């Protein structure tokens, strides 16, 4: 007998199993260091250059309040921003000096970035940064808010020019020329997700204990141990759960391994949970070969089913790497990655990968098709 499948169900299944499956493996961008600056771009062509504490004899922290961050988009909209990150102690105005010369002034604002310079002012300030040796931001009474070395800034911004195909065009910051700027063609991938209906069912404690006893983390559990179990939804009589097993810890990092649990039916009828290590389109970089990858300081956004890892290179949090993965129904797919290789005061990490995501049911509703399809 022919099976009648609704249009929505068919297109949800088709889109979820083809669109995401055809996506290439993520390739996060490279981060380069030029003396006292670090720079990198993501797969969409957005670039960031971030100042670092002066590396001479490890000094510079005495006058360091936070980094200067230069960001630029790759398109003709040319969204160039210069931001300064520091703790604002209720100071209302600032002056920005390069080699003692005033190049910008204005009011400070609340938030992570008390200073944000855009448009023509950002172009003017960037030119001063390229040509200067030191940048200082001071308050209305001359108090130092941050002092930044500009050594390497010209090379970092030149790297941005090259990566965005601006070199030798009128839009370049460093490598200026007369060529016509042709925007970089790049497309941020869209991940189609098939997430199940909300449900609260999770494995029993005894099943989690058995999983831990048979996991590679059994002998790595010391200090404060905190396992986490979250429901991942329901489809018919099937249920899934995410289990984060503690797998070692340090002074400021806690490692976990992720498992996906699934059960079909009811425990009263003999059904049991089956577990498998979580899989990723690009595995987290922590963990030994031949073992499930480690998530560091993991966090789970239950509403959007996004799993995050945040590995600090040291307690200050001025270096390390971070990833965010979305559950697409079968595996975790990378939607954002950022990193800072140098532990030199840069609390702003550089974004090196981005992806979008959309629910397969929403795509199905946008797709033209007949009312029913017969198999």
What is the element layout, followed by pairings?
Blueprint (H helix, E strand, L loop, with lengths): L3 E3 H12 L12 E4 L2 E5 L5 E5 L16 E5 L7 E5 L8 E6 L2 E7 L7 E4 H13 L2 E5 L5 E6 L3 H11 L26 E4 L11 H9 L14 E8 L2 E12 L4 E11 L9 E4 L17 E2 L2 E3 L4 E7 L7 E8 L4 E9 L9 E5 L1 E4 H7 L5 E3 L1
Helix pairs in contact: 1-5
Descriptive overview:
The protein is mostly beta strands and 375 residues long. The chain has 2 domains: 133 residues, Invasion associated locus B (IalB) protein (Immunoglobulin-like); 185 residues, no CATH class. Helices cover 14% and strands 36% of the residues. It has 5 helices and 24 strands. The strands form 6 sheets. The chain has a 6-stranded antiparallel beta sheet with strand order 2-3-4-5-6-9, with helices on one face. A hairpin with a 4-residue loop joins β14 and β15. The radius of gyration is 25 Å and the shape is elongated. 39% of the residues are buried. The N terminus and C terminus are likely disordered.
């Amino acid at each position: 007998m022919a099976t009648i499948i609704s249009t929505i169900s068919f297109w949800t299944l088709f889109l979820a199993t083809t669109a995401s499956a055809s996506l290439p493996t993520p390739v996060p961008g490279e981060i380069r260091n030029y003396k006292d600056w670090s720079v990198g771009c993501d797969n969409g062509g957005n670039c960031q250059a971030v100042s670092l504490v002066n590396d001479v004899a490890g000094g510079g922290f005495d006058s360091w309040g936070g980094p200067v961050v230069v960001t630029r988009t790759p398109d003709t909209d040319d969204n160039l921003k210069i931001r300064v990150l520091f703790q604002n102690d209720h100071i209302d105005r600032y002056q920005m000096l390069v080699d003692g010369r005033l190049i910008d002034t204005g009011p400070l604002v609340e938030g992570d970035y008390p200073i944000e310079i855009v448009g023509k002012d950002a172009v003017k300030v960037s030119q001063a940064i390229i040509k200067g040796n030191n940048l200082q931001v001071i308050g209305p009474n001359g108090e130092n808010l941050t002092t930044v070395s500009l050594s390497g800034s010209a090379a970092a911004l030149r790297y941005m020019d090259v990566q965005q195909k601006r070199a030798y065009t009128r839009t370049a910051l460093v490598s200026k020329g007369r060529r016509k700027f042709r925007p970089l063609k790049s497309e941020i991938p869209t991940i189609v997700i098939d997430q199940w209906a909300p449900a609260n069912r999770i494995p029993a404690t005894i099943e989690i204990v058995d999983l831990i006893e048979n996991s590679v983390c059994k002998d790595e559990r010391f200090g404060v141990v905190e396992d986490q179990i979250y429901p991942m939804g329901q489809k018919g009589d099937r249920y899934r759960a995410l289990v984060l097993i503690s797998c070692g810890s340090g002074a400021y990092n806690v490692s976990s391994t992720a498992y996906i649990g699934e059960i079909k039916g009811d425990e009263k009828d003999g059904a049991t949970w089956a577990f498998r290590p979580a899989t990723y389109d690009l595995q987290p970089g922590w963990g030994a070969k031949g073992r499930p990858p480690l998530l560091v300081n993991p966090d789970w956004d239950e509403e959007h089913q996004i799993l995050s890892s945040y590995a600090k290179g040291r307690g200050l949090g001025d270096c390390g790497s971070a990833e965010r993965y979305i559950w697409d129904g079968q595996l975790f797919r990378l939607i954002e990655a950022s990193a800072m290789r140098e532990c030199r005061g840069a609390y702003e990490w550089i974004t090196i990968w981005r992806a979008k995501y959309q629910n397969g049911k929403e795509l199905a509703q946008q797709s033209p098709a007949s009312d029913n399809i017969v198999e």
